């Protein structure tokens, strides 16, 4: 019996990492990171599910998912109570996406009277279990109901950030939101890292902003906060025109420009994330 227990432990699958890409500011590289980090993980033969929770549906468009392919959208998952798995559209052997439509914009109003509305995504994901190594959730640029649903289900948050002081002003609200969600809804939630996007190494402001973020994170070490173990990723996503062009072709950077700086940055970022300690 002991031998079988040992074998069972040895073959236990690692926990699914559910990562919300979260920033209430638009244009910081959130959707670009969700798409291309997901594609990079899939290139490494990790099973990846991307969830588009943004009514703008930019992640959906990024992968060339056309309206006729969308039998079930994330709007219908939340509004009609359908299993999240029913929304999956395959985009390669290791990559699936739960697409969004503009209908999702109505969810904030339509679900306002629903009891437990901030837990709908988590419930619909659990109603029919699916397997994946990574789930990446593209949150809308707001702190509303859709973002709360993402944070209620996720076990990690990655914050894409541009290195300028206006971005720093919004960080306090981001951290406060994660603190409240962890305290009241999802005790496992943690901020695993901050990713600098549209990075310009020579810019003086970049270094100053990075230093400010590092000081803040260092001051929180050892405290019981969602960001106490957060890191600034060593990988910085450089400004790269190919990253901006890829969505218009319905492709990831690895399909559109596999030898570009953008592909190199997201490949290294995926390696860095895969090496991080997996926490439930």
Task: Walk me through what this model shows.
By secondary structure, this protein is of the alpha/beta class. It has an eight-stranded mixed beta sheet with strand order 3-4-2-5-1-6-7-8, with helices on both faces. It is built from twelve helices and eight strands. Residues 4-13 have low confidence and may be disordered. Helix content is 41%, strand content 14%.
Write the topology of this structure.
Elements: H1 2-10, E1 17-21, H2 30-43, E2 48-52, H3 58-62, H4 74-79, E3 89-90, E4 95-98, H5 107-110, H6 120-126, E5 134-138, H7 145-153, E6 156-162, H8 165-184, E7 190-197, H9 204-219, E8 231-232, H10 241-245, H11 253-256, H12 261-275
Parallel strand pairs: 1-5, 1-6, 2-4, 2-5, 6-7, 7-8
Antiparallel strand pairs: 3-4
CATH top-level class? Alpha Beta
Domain tally = 1
Distance between the termini: 27 Å
Beta fraction of the residues?
5-15%
SS-based structural class? alpha/beta
Helical region count? 12
Mean pLDDT: 89
Give the uncertain stretches in residue-range form.
4-13
In CATH, the topology is named: Rossmann fold
């Amino acid at each position: 019996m002991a031998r079988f227990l040992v074998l069972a432990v040895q073959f236990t699958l690692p926990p699914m990492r559910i990562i919300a890409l979260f920033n209430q500011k638009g244009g910081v590289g959130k959707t670009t990171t969700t798409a291309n980090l997901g594609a990079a993980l899939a290139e490494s033969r990790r099973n990846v599910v991307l969830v588009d929770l943004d009514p703008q549906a930019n992640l959906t468009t990024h992968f060339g998912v056309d309206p006729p392919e969308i039998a079930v959208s994330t709007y219908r998952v939340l509004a009609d109570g359908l299993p999240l798995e029913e929304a999956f559209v395959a985009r390669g052997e290791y990559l699936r996406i739960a697409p969004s439509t503009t209908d999702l914009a109505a969810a904030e109003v339509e679900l306002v009277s629903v009891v437990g509305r901030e837990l709908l995504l988590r419930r619909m994901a659990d109603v029919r279990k699916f397997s994946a190594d990574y789930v990446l959730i593209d949150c809308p640029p707001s702190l509303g109901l859709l973002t709360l649903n993402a944070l209620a289900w996720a076990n990690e948050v990655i914050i894409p950030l541009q290195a300028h002081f206006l971005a720093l002003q919004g960080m306090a609200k981001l951290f406060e939101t994660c603190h409240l969600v962890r305290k009241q809804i999802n005790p496992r939630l943690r901020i695993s890292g901050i990713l600098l996007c549209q990075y310009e190494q020579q810019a003086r402001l970049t270094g100053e902003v990075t230093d400010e973020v590092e000081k803040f994170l260092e001051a929180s070490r050892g405290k019981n906060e969602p960001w106490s173990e957060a890191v600034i990723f060593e990988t910085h996503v450089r400004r790269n025109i190919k990253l901006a062009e890829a969505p218009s072709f319905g492709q990831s950077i690895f399909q559109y420009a596999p030898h570009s700086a953008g592909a190199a940055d997201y490949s290294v970022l995926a390696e860095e994330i895969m090496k991080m300690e997996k926490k439930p």
